[in-house]
Design goal:
single chain; mainly alpha; 59% helix; elongated
């Protein structure tokens, strides 16, 4: 079953895009996944990419998403530490 990643707070899109670009050292959040794909050796094109293997798609999405989750957890920890001071 395909997962649908849906942002629960649509207003957060811009902030998440900025975080993604910052973590992946990209100037343009819209190009980040293509830059990561190129670094990983995955042939990702704009538009339909249904022919790529799930393993290759995971290299791209997992790399980006994993780093974003780590940073969001660290941000929450820092915020909680600041609140407890």
């Amino acid at each position: 079953m395909a997962r649908r990643n849906k942002i629960l707070v649509p207003e957060a899109r811009a902030g998440l895009d900025q975080l993604k670009a910052r973590l992946m050292n990209s100037q343009d959040p819209n190009r980040t996944k293509y830059e990561v794909a190129k670094e990983q050796g995955v042939s990702l094109q704009e538009g339909y990419n249904g022919e790529i293997k799930a393993k290759d798609a995971g290299k791209v999405g997992g790399s980006i998403g994993g780093n974003m989750v780590k940073e969001l957890v660290n941000m929450a920890k820092r915020q909680m530490e600041d609140e407890n001071k």
